[in-house]
Structure formats: structure tokens, C-alpha cells
Design a protein that fits this description.
Elements: H1 4-11, E1 29-35, E2 40-47, H2 53-68, E3 73-80, H3 83-88, H4 90-98, E4 109-115, H5 122-135, E5 140-144, H6 152-155, E6 163-165, E7 168-170, E8 172-174, E9 177-181, H7 196-208, E10 217-221, H8 228-236, E11 241-246, H9 250-265, E12 269-276, E13 280-281, E14 288-289, H10 296-303, E15 308-312, H11 334-351
Parallel strand pairs: 2-3, 4-10, 4-11, 5-9, 5-10, 11-12, 12-15
Antiparallel strand pairs: 1-2, 6-7, 8-9, 13-14
Amino acid sequence: MLTEESIVEILKDFNDPFLHKSLVETNGILEVKIKPEKSHVSVKIAIAKTGTSEQLQLQTKIVDALKERGASSVGIRFSELPEAELAKHRDSLHEEAEMGLLSPASKTAFIAIASGKGGVGKSTVSVNVATALARLGKKVGLVDADIYGFSVPDMMGISKRPIVRGEKIIPVERFGVKVISMGFFVEDNAPVIWRGPILGKMLNSFFNEVEWGELDYLLLDLPPGTGDIALDVHTMLPSCKEIIVTTPHPTAAFVAARAGAMAIKTEHEVIGVVENMAFFESEITGEKEYVFGKGGGDKLAEELRTEVLGRLPLQQPDWNEADFAPSIYAEDHRLGKIYTEIANKIIHKIDN
């Protein structure tokens, strides 16, 4: 039969996921209650950081352990450790930060793919640039930071989910690219209704709590526009390159300029513009139709004092049912070759 004392004994086996010390050492077991008639256990736990994937992992482990010992249901509330308690363990937090992807010692180059508005093909550009860089022998990661409009797993034909190894999430690898997305953590394409602060913590988890390994480049598919999530990314990444995606339409380029201006104000370097849907070319006559107009990419590049890295015509990838990836262009595809050219320009700019 479960008692409050036996529950505390069970909780002693669990560590704070950030301090790597037991919940007893951190005074993290705040409250234990039990309703014997219903075998319902209620606990309150304090850890160094809340609203993270580590918290979710710890919660799952505690619930499983308590149910194995006889609890019919478990309720867990989390809070953050008070500053006085954190001060006792500050060295552990520093060690964690020094090893992270965002640490000053990190050699990973961050590349954010941004746009002023939705529907211009920003995610398509993100997944294909990431794939092209990997084909060129680079170690590449991709964060689907468009948390409300995540689409990267579907576009890359990813059906697996990340696994947890120890206290780290292992990203899913496809086409040589390591991928993490909010889409992995929701069921049945459910809408995300979290508010900004929680979403910011989730993004932080994507940087610090995923086992990325050694990366040359980490690409971020940003949400369109200049909202809270894009601002969080700009704040979290003091050193980041940006690529702005637009269509040739002058209005689209005008809107995209705001995303570029935001990058410049936050001291991020805009290394180029990609003009998507530049034209449609008839397979029969070879004639080019400028469906969305002309000049938007050049106008945007001039305004942001950068260059057009590539122009992508309207054309679907060739789908292969055995290796389905609805948005990835093959290396020898006409657009695949353009993405390779774009990737080579990116490497040249960043490595030099």
C-alpha cells in the first residue's frame, strides 16, 4: 500500500534534469498527498527550468514509477526552484550551458530562413537548402521553428518520431539532415494553442535539450512575419545569418523587407535573398510566364544590401512512392541543381 513516506522514497530516485542532482539534494519534493480510498497520488515538484521537454520526460517517468507501485492515477504540478536554492547549484547550470549549442564555444553556424508573409515557399526553401548542404558533405540540423504552422516533417516525408536517450531528445534524420519540429510533439495534427512564453521555452528546448551532435550548420525555418516567435529566435541567437524568401511580386518583396529589417536591427547578417516562384516555364513551348510578376527579389536584395542567391521556377518535385518526400527535389532535378548552387554560395559566404 502506498504511503506518503513510500512515495518520497520513490521520488528520491529521480534527478533534476538540469542540475543532475537528486530531487532530495535540490529540495525539489515540495508536496506529497495521497487519497487511499482512490489510490490517487498528488505531488508537487520544483526543478531548475519548467515548460521544457525535460519536464515532460521527468513527468512521464514519475507517473510510470508511481503507477507501477500501485497508484491508480497521478497528478503532478511543477514549479521552478527559488533563486536561493538555484544559487547553491549554480556551477551545475553553468556546466550545462557551456556544453550547449548556444554556448560561446559552439562552432555551429546558425542560418535562419525568414519571410515577410506566409505562402511564399519559405519552408520548401528551408528543407531543400538543408538537404543540399548535407549532399555537399556538411553536417546539418534543421529546426522547424514555425511552431504554429509546422510542416517540415510532412514536407520531408518523415513518419518517425524522436526518441529519448538518457536526458536528451535524439532528432530524426532524413536525407542526412537532423530534424526537430513541434509536429513531433502533437497528436493527429492538433492545433497548438500555447501562449508566447511557453512557446519560447519550447524553442529554447530545441536548442539546448536535443542531442544534435557536431553540426556545421543549424537551419531554422522561422514563422512568417515579425511576431513573438521570430523575436524570441532573434533574442536567443546573438550570432545568426539570415536568408529572406520572397516571390517576385513587388508587394511580397515590400512585406519581406520588414523581416530583413528586423534581422538587421537585431544584428543578424542577411546573407541573401531567394526568389521563389520566379516564373513558370512551359514544357511544351519553353516559354516563360512570369505569373507573380518580376523584380521583387532584386528590389528586396538592393534594399537589404545583399544579393539574390537563386531564383526558383514553379515546378513540382518528382515523387517516389517508395521514398516519399513531397517537397524534396532530387539532386539531378532542375530545381535540385539550383538548390545546390544556393548551398554552395551559402558555404562560401559563411566559411569566408
